[in-house]
Write a structure and sequence with these properties.
Order of helices and strands: EEEHEEHEEEHEHEEEH
Helix content: 25-40%
CATH topology: Rossmann fold
GO molecular function, one term: metal ion binding
Shape: globular
Number of helices: 5
Oligomer: single chain
Strand content: 25-35%
Bound molecules: ligand PMT
Number of strands: 12
Strand order of the largest sheet: 5-4-1-6-9-10-11-12
Keywords: Decarboxylase, Flavoprotein, FMN, Ligase, Lyase, Magnesium, Metal-binding, Multifunctional enzyme
Largest sheet: 8 strands, mixed
Low-confidence stretches: none
Catalytic activity: (R)-4'-phosphopantothenate + L-cysteine + CTP = N-[(R)-4-phosphopantothenoyl]-L-cysteine + CMP + diphosphate + H(+); N-[(R)-4-phosphopantothenoyl]-L-cysteine + H(+) = (R)-4'-phosphopantetheine + CO2
CATH superfamily: CoaB-like
Mean pLDDT: 96
Cofactor: FMN; Mg(2+)
Structural class: alpha/beta
Pathway: Cofactor biosynthesis; coenzyme A biosynthesis; CoA from (R)-pantothenate: step 2/5; Cofactor biosynthesis; coenzyme A biosynthesis; CoA from (R)-pantothenate: step 3/5
Length: 221
């Protein structure tokens, strides 16, 4: 890890979950704590970058020296990302964006009249895919959280979303969501590398070193 390897670069990172309202007191969300994305933002700052962190609701303090923008929903995250994209050299999507949201949030708290309740969900916009389609586009890095077929699913996601790199993590006991440690396999055009199980802080530094290297070797097309 080379200090200063991202000196002069602007890096935009997303982290944490999003919350999609069901009614004024309930939401659909996931187990992301924000730790991975916050560690990535801090490591990019250590490497000399100017970092903006767009964060869903988490219990973490903002890392020192980083501009943090707090959001709640996928739509708010999308607006914040678009607002900070101009001049951005590298985008890293570590957030666990809710893929679906309730078709309509109820204005009043839902009453429990029935034994069962069905929710109609609609797809959320894919923030990462939108960034990858921008002109000009930053060097675009996605994450893939998988419970099975990590290798095949990560490669497919990278191709489908036209990413410069994807960082895949297996989710399960001791790694992935809401724990201090993780392991990642990185995929890019023509290569891959596994980064071993370790603290998210150390892992993020290794990830940023690989991103810096690929960014300087093969800037976005
Ligand atoms: O926050 P922690 O508790 O530290 O956990 C870390 C993590 C497991 C959340 C993180 O390492 C991780 O894998 N983040 C991505 C989780 C995810 O939603 O993966 P996905 O395979 O569903 O999404 C693929 C990529 O598309 C991700 O970069 C995601 O940010 C992006 N995406 C997905 C859906 C959507 N609507 N918009 C997006 O931008």
């Amino acid at each position: 890890f080379e200090t200063g390897s991202l000196a002069g670069c602007r890096v935009l990172v997303t982290a944490g979950p999003t919350r999609e309202a069901i009614d004024p007191v309930r939401f659909v969300s996931n187990r992301s704590s924000g730790r991975m994305g916050y560690a990535v933002a801090a490591a990019a700052r250590e490497a000399g970058a100017r970092v903006t962190l767009v964060s869903g609701p988490v219990a973490l303090d903002g890392p020192a020296g980083i501009e943090r923008v707090m959001v709640e929903t996928a739509e708010e995250m999308r607006v914040a990302v678009q607002a900070h994209l101009t001049g951005c050299d590298i985008f890293i999507g570590a957030a666990a964006v809710a893929d679906y949201r309730p078709a309509q949030a109820a204005a009043q708290k839902l009453k429990k009249h029935n034994a069962t309740l069905s929710l109609d969900l609609v797809r959320n916009p894919d923030i990462l895919a939108e960034v990858a389609r921008a002109h000009p586009r930053p060097f675009t890095v996605g994450f893939a959280a998988e419970t099975e077929d990590l290798d095949a699913n990560a490669r497919t996601k990278r191709m489908q979303k036209s990413l410069d790199m994807i960082a895949a993590n297996r989710v399960g006991p001791g790694q992935g969501f809401d724990v201090g440690d993780n392991a990642l396999t990185l995929y890019w055009e023509g290569g891959s590398e596994s980064l071993p199980h370790q603290s998210k802080t150390r892992l993020a530094r290794e990830l940023i070193a690989r991103i810096a290297q690929r960014f300087h070797d093969a800037p976005p097309s």
